[in-house]
Write a structure and sequence with these properties.
Blueprint: E1 2-6, H1 13-28, H2 38-52, E2 54-60, E3 63-72, H3 78-87, E4 102-110, H4 119-133, E5 138-144, H5 149-156, E6 160-167, H6 172-176, E7 183-190, H7 191-209
Parallel strand pairs: 4-5
Antiparallel strand pairs: 1-2, 2-3, 3-4, 5-7, 6-7
Helix pairs in contact: 1-2, 4-7
Length: 210
């Protein structure tokens, strides 16, 4: 298995189709049970992240088995950006929080048959390294309030929940995808702390498997 960052200029049709298949598999089960068209995943998820942020994928036997996307907060979807702006004024956040150096960790998924193998930790590691190299200091993420593997992963690397859960039932994408997850929780952390913690988790996993 290897991990790579997709680049807009070199992403092929087969790369796109592999990403589409992985995305559909990752979010088709609990807790989201969402359905998406190929066009939506390509045009509303993959391409905007390639153009405005970054996409990291895990491949095995040539196919995408895990992925992570991220964009600067100011390039995030309008409902996310406005919510994070409000959250950024709440007590408890670092005094040096700077939204212009903050990233939104927008998508994280692993196909069903590759879960519990540490794929997501490696994808998060790759994203945090890239964000750090681009000057990112902080990150926010949003995930299902209940039943989210991502929430547990981020909590293990030091991310903290903030604010009240956001009800996304009124959003077009939630309705169109028939999502069963309507309450989303935001979490935040420092990029440097998250990177140190995720490396520790990966080392623990390697030691355990020896």
């Amino acid at each position: 298995m290897h991990f790579e960052r997709l680049i807009a200029s070199s992403t092929s049709a087969s790369d796109i189709q592999d990403f589409v298949a992985a995305y559909r598999d990752a979010f088709g089960g609990a807790p989201y049970f969402e359905t998406y068209s190929d066009e939506y995943i390509r045009d509303e998820v993959l391409i905007p992240h390639l153009e405005n942020g970054l996409v990291v994928v895990a491949r095995d036997n040539g196919h995408v088995v895990g992925f992570g996307c991220t964009v600067p907060v100011y390039s995030s979807p309008p409902d996310v950006m406005e919510y994070i702006k409000k959250l950024s004024t709440e007590p408890g956040l670092p005094s040096d929080l700077a939204l212009e150096r903050t990233w939104y960790m927008s998508e994280l998924g692993t196909v069903t048959t590759y879960r519990l193998r540490g794929v997501a930790y490696q994808v998060v590691r790759s994203r945090l390294i890239s964000v750090s190299h681009m000057g990112g200091l902080f990150y926010f993420m949003r995930t299902a309030k209940e039943g989210s593997n991502s929430r547990h992963l981020y909590a293990r690397i030091g991310a903290l929940p903030i604010g009240q859960p956001q009800n996304v039932g009124g959003l077009r994408v939630t309705k169109d995808s028939s999502s069963r997850s309507l309450e989303r929780q935001y979490m935040y952390g420092r990029v440097s702390d998250g990177l140190e913690a995720v490396l520790g988790r990966i080392r623990e996993s390697a030691d355990t498997s020896c």
